[in-house]
Design goal:
Radius of gyration: 38 Å
Distance between the termini: 42 Å
Order of helices and strands: HHHEHEEEEEHHEEE
Strand order of the largest sheet: 7-8-9
Number of strands: 9
Strand content: 5-15%
Length: about 280
């Protein structure tokens, strides 16, 4: 995994723009491309490109966030490099794209006609010198910190405080007003023609009281939520909501985009360029 590309065919996006002279100039002047190609011309050989000079659509890494592996829209940034003296021993080199579990896939290289001789001196960069692999790895207990012993009296005090602690009452986010009970009307004030009290102290049912009209609103009308997602312009399928992750003024803003994975332009199974800000 060198995270660098050698030729335009090593990138699906670059291969689509191979006919644009400006893009080609920027590609060829890229510092990482120049440095890597100088390395290949100097002392090492790219096994895959040596055996498959005209190969296209052969990648080892795909953007999982864009689901690029579905349409094989990726890059070739994983290599098996050999010295120039071993070029004649190369038999095959390929990518195991069917092996999943990572955004990268393994690269397999086969050589023949080699008599392997074990070296008596192991280079210091080899994993046999790693602390985890040289037979002296540390135990799990060494990674655990010892807890300080607490005095027995302090433990009793803490336990006593826990018993006395009262649970806190949850405060309501609104104010509760206590409603006083309705006062009963004295019998002397009730309508009784026999005692001369003819003034009505109540409101007959035939009399309409001017009360503010109450409009019944359903919860469904209040909690409408977001409107249905619009259809993308290329496939007329419902869009998905995405978020801008790139640094800038629009970072964090959400927008509607095509639900299909990224892929070659013109491919009906690739996402279209629909873009619409979420209002």
């Amino acid at each position: 995994d060198l995270n660098v590309k050698s030729v335009i065919a090593d990138s699906a996006e670059a291969f689509e723009n191979r006919l644009k002279s400006k893009f080609v100039r920027e590609w060829e002047s890229s510092q990482d491309v120049i440095a890597f190609n100088n390395l290949l011309r100097g002392s090492l050989t790219d096994s895959f490109r040596y055996l498959n000079k005209a190969a296209t659509n052969s990648y080892t890494c795909w953007n999982t966030g864009l689901n690029a592996r579905v349409n094989n829209f990726g890059t070739r940034i994983d290599y098996v490099l050999v010295s120039h003296s071993l070029k004649g021993n190369l038999v095959s080199c390929g990518h195991l794209a069917s092996v999943i579990g990572s955004d990268h896939c393994p690269v397999k290289c086969e050589l023949e006609g080699l008599d392997l001789i074990g070296s008596e001196i192991v280079p210091p960069e080899c994993s046999v010198h790693f602390p985890e692999l040289r037979g002296k790895q540390t135990s799990l207990l060494s990674h655990l910190t010892k807890q300080s012993k607490m005095p027995p009296e302090a433990g009793k005090e803490v336990q006593g405080n826990r018993r006395k602690r009262q649970p806190k009452q949850t405060k309501l986010p609104f104010k509760v007003t206590k409603i006083s009970p309705r006062k009963s009307v004295p019998a002397s004030q009730k309508l009784n023609p026999s005692n001369g009290n003819t003034e009505a102290s109540f409101c007959p049912s035939s009399v309409k009281v001017n009360e503010p009209t109450r409009k019944v609103v359903s919860a469904k009308s209040l909690l409408k939520g977001l409107p249905p997602n619009p259809l993308c312009s290329g496939h007329r399928r419902p869009c998905v909501i995405k978020t801008v992750m790139k640094e800038g003024d629009n970072k964090g803003r959400r927008f509607y985009g095509c639900q299909l994975p990224i892929g070659p332009k013109g491919d009906p199974n690739s996402k279209c360029g629909h873009f619409e800000w979420l209002k």
